Amino acid sequence: MARKRSNFKILRIFFFLIAGLAGIALLLKLSSNARASDIQKILQNLPKEITQSINVANSNQKADADVMAKFAKLAEDIKLKQEEQSKQFERQRKVLERKLRNMKQISTDATLREKLAYNFEYDGKSRFPAFLWQTWSGSQTPEEVLHVKATWQEKNPGFVHEILTPEMMNALVHHYYSIVPEVVEAYKLLPDNILRIDFFKYLVLLARGGTYADIDTSPLQPIPNWIPETVEPSDIGLTVGIEHDAQAVDWRSHYVRRLQFGTWVIQAKPGHPVLREVVAQIVEHVLNNKDDLSTVNVRNDLSVMKFTGSALFTDAIMTYLNDFIKSGLDRKVTWRDFTKITSPKLVSDILVFPEFSFNVPENFDKEDPLRAQFFISHKGEKFWKAAPKVAS
């Protein structure tokens, strides 16, 4: 009986053990199925999560780019404002300088050159004014003058173009130089209109700047085309062409200097020291020789060249270039620096053109390799030859 009870107990324990194992197995199976389902869900959602991550990254990158663009624009705005402020300060400085200059009157015992320098300041970094000056003495017909005017205006439509009669020249000299009465006096004392025209070209360029051209010239290219691309306009204060580069041994019978710079075309910025010196020398010569002015022979080329023409102009240029304080050069300059040049040459702030640039041959070859430097044709009429002869 006891043995039966013991066997029953063992069976009971075995049954519970089997049931427990079965339960554990069931739980393990259920757990395994849950993990598999989760992994499957994770794998299914993985592309979406990757895409979302990429989108978030792109969004962040775009936001960063937007921020950088805003910073760049802010920096550019600040730079523009600084530049504008700098320009305003410069304008204010110039206004203040003018006010101070007006408050400080020039000394009553100032020399002629000091007066000219004080009243007609030179700013080498300024632009060439878009003025074109020409004079008409009556030797050409009105139709010829109108043709000249139309030709120049066609090539230079943006320029203020003035063709001045002797009466207009006289009015401008009085207007610009009433503050330097010696100049007005010398202008009035000149015995011939030809000499006054020569003097006037220097006076108007000193006061206003721009380009002067004799009435018997004709432009082949616009004035702005003259300056080579390799030269900065701010580095130039005076533009001239060679009038004569002597190759013959008897050059002294026709010219004063072996190499001379022409005056039928001159481009200048206001107040250039060369023009100031030319004006000063003419004024001094006239005022110091009042009694002898009537003997000047304007029919003689050499007399005109020395008095108001190209010889005087050439000497003033060479003196300026050899003044190392004014020119900034550290070497001696002679005619050899300009002889036989075939392209524009900048020496200090003076741009010198070859002999052919402002005196283009009448019948030139259109295939000429130098054609790009052909700027002006010049008839060289020398209308003063018709003046009455005066003993020299």
TrEMBL record:
Pfam families found in the cross-reference section: Gly_transf_sug
Entry keyword annotation includes Glycosyltransferase: yes
Highest rank taxon of the organism: Eukaryota
Coiled coil: 79-106
Membrane topology: Single-pass type II membrane protein
Any Gene Ontology CC annotation: mannan polymerase complex
Gene Ontology molecular function: alpha-1,6-mannosyltransferase activity
Keyword Magnesium: no
Keywords: Coiled coil, Glycosyltransferase, Golgi apparatus, Membrane, Signal-anchor, Transferase, Transmembrane, Transmembrane helix
Gene3D superfamilies, per the entry: 3.90.550.20
One Gene Ontology term from the biological process aspect of the record: protein N-linked glycosylation
Family under the similarity heading: Belongs to the glycosyltransferase 32 family.
Cited PANTHER family: GLYCOSYLTRANSFERASE HOC1-RELATED (PTHR31834:SF11), INITIATION-SPECIFIC ALPHA-1,6-MANNOSYLTRANSFERASE (PTHR31834)
Protein name: Putative glycosyltransferase HOC1
Species, as recorded: Candida glabrata (Yeast)
